What does this fold into?
Amino acid sequence: MKQSLIKPKHLPTGGTIGVIAPAGKVDLADLSRGVASLEQAGFKVILGNHIEKSHRYFAGLDRERADDFLGMMQNESVDAVFCSRGGSGSARIIPYIDERNLLPPKIFVGCSDVTTLLVYLSQKHGFVTFHGPMIAAQLGSIAGGASISSPLEHLLQVLSGEKLEMSAPGVISLKQGCADGILTGGCLTLLCTTIGTAYEIDTNDRILFIEDIGEAPYRIDRMLNYLKTLKKFDNIRGLIVGQMKDCNPDLLPEIILETVYDFDFPILFSFPSGHGDSLFTLPFGTSVKMDTNKKTITLRSSAVSLE
It folds into this structure.
């Protein structure tokens, strides 16, 4: 098994969280509600200088979004960096990040289009990253109605260093077995866009997590077979598939099994992380165990440094 990546320092009680928008423009009402949920949990929140800006469908110009990312990552008073939403544009800021290639390991949380930055930080800088709920798009958008206590509580448990067993109703076992390995992955569409870049997703000897939203089954089929052609499934230890919101998920188990019929790794389906319920935060780059009989994912070690 490959060694775990560099763990960031844990999020202390009452710590400081920096919130940025590296991709799409932000609904300010949702942002305000999401920030309030963090403040109610006892954290100090600092917003990126450009988070309220808009340029086409982006939250400001590429350089502005990159400056916010770098500013929060390099700010010693900020304990963790959370993203406000996905959308599009995360990959566009990477050239500006690479100009100033000094990044300390720090908690970085996001999903959807932010998958690109999660993979980039893991592949280029060797950091553990966190596939979890975003401040405006998820925590803020439901704060006026459904309870956000479960996804926020789980996020904070992972970031404080707890070793957790994750299970939820509705998770399906598509292929039986258990597997231990380093977890990696993210939004399927964005994982495919890393192919050929300097931060291409490495699935070798890993447990791979994939999820997506609003993609037709034939597109999911195409992307899975694209990854198969690139041998991205050849040496994985297990496959975990998210809820695949608005992707006609009833058809997907058949598509998945057809694609990987000649492999014997275990498969879980409809695991709530990312789009959909976004219940669980998954630490990419840390050791986990998946068990299809119990339909669980268990953190084998703390995802953060407790020193």
Observations:
- The longest strand covers residues 178-187.
- The chain has two domains: 16-160, 165-299.
- The radius of gyration is 18 Å.
